Amino acid sequence: MLFQAEDYSGQKEKDYELVNKQLKALIEDEPDITANLANASALLYQFLDDVNWVGFYLYKNGELVLAPFQGLPACVRIKYGNGVCGTALKEKQTIRVENVNEFPGHIACDAASQSEIVTPIYQDGQIIGVLDIDSPNLSRFDEIDQENLEAFAKILSEHL
Length: 160
Known about the structure:
By secondary structure, the chain is α+β, with helices and mostly antiparallel strands. The mean pLDDT is 93. It has helices at 12-27, 33-47, 83-91, 143-158, and strands at residues 53-60, 63-71, 77-79, 95-97, 115-123, 126-135. It has a six-stranded antiparallel β-sheet, sandwiched between helices. α1 (12-27) runs parallel beside α4. It has a single domain, classed as Beta-Lactamase.
């Protein structure tokens, strides 16, 4: 079942629950990783307010490689440990950045981005990529976003 904008309550936790249910419905019977990542990025881009980029990077041959996304064209390859995405990969944890201009080594693909959250995606205990979301607003992402985006990434990883 796909939810429409009017189905959302305006309560962040409840609305993330609906998004996660919608993700399951979109990907549960589809084995193709590209199709699933494309739908997942489109779903989040539609759902989240005040974001200018939502997408994925997959970990291949020691670096992150651009995968399906919504937003302006992006950096194609990110080295392990570089930028917010590469740091999340290296540290094996979600990184939430309130002001990207203060993050050492931030990679500016879109000059409008002011804050960012990156969540690793695991499969069989190994990181296979990251979910990356940028916002043109400072301090856009909070603990509720982090917790629910980690749940989103977990659902996604179970169906890739």
